[in-house]
Amino acid sequence: MLTVGLDVHQRSSSLCILDTNGKAPTVGCVAILSQDQWQVLIPEAHPGYISWSDYQRNQQQLHACAQTHGHDRRQSPPGQGPALLQGLVICGLCGQRMTVRYHARRGRFVPDYVCQRDGIENGHRICQCVPGAAIDEAIAQLLLQSVEPMNLHLVWAVQQELQTRLQEADRLRCQQVERARFEADLAKRRYMQVDPDNRLVADTLEAEWNQSLRALDEAQQQYERQREADRRVLDEQAQRRILALADDFPSVWRDPQTPDRERKRMVRLLLEDVTLVKTDQITVQIRFKGGAQRTLSVPALRGAWELRKTNPQVIARIDQLLDHHTDGQVAWQLNQQGLHAGQGATYTTGMVARVRRTYHLRSRYERLREKGMLTMEEMAEQLHVATATVKRWRHAGLLRAYAYDDKSQCLYEPPGHNQPVKSQGRKLSERCRFPQIVTHSTHEVQHAT
What we know:
four-stranded mixed β-sheet, 449 residues, 14 helices, alpha+beta
């Protein structure tokens, strides 16, 4: 059987009828079931201090602002933090709502959007953690581009076209109501003209009249509801206010005095939700309130080690320069060519040496040794002279030498069959066999060509 209960907890004027599954109703019973379990609802059945529509709006606002992380809630009330999409972000991998985590960087709070529900409930690892600074900036730029005069003019034109179609649909619904009214009037005239003594015919005509009245009432209510929903015509004054928003919105958004909470409220007026997927880049899928969708690709934030990592092209260039230059000379060449280390730093001898060791590049010494170059001791032993004589002959141009570091240490080219020998009475300058050694920079060492 059905029992009637007063919905006291809502404090509005409505009456609900509940199914007790054949049990006898209790006198003065109060409805405690949720609204989706009600069998019959009669709004405005008794006077209340708020209307049923106001109550429904209040319930929706309370539901949207609930702090509970329930499966039926996607949003939460805007907080004081700088995270622009707080409460609007959905994980693109598992579909769960993502929360906000802040960390301090250079004296300000930077948000991260984290999908951690499964980790909290089941002890699993975090689904994904997405840096939020770049995403918030991309969303802000998108909103500023969307609220432009040209876009608003297009929206106005579409609104006018939709309004024209709605007016045509309203005319058709009005004709349907008139048709139902005509049927009700016809049934009324038939009933009024029947002989009262013919009860069987009178009852049939009365039933048809009642049925036509119900159809008329239903058509009239549907017409009023649809007309109220379609009543969105914007007059010229409203159009000017909307177009003025194109100038006001960017200024309000960029104003340092605008609180973060107000920016979040502006975002919630325009966006439904945002879905994030992090791979080698961050894919941002945006749903607007009107149903439009946009997809953005944001570069993933690189770590500190990635920011300081040497470019592979620079590594290849260093490998080429080491065939003919020392570490210091390579650093000078890179700076002259406009190549920079991580975060724009200029190269030094130590940087080149670290890059060489890190990427296992052969040093200048190893490359010269592979070409058969000799050390000073080996050259002295081959010429049967002292090492001081080898050094003096190198400076005089009798031997060809190649620097392998930035401390004037060299390796010598084998002299071959025409090797120098000691000669009494002849100046070394007269016996020079190779060009004068040239230096290009204070950072370079002398080397023979």
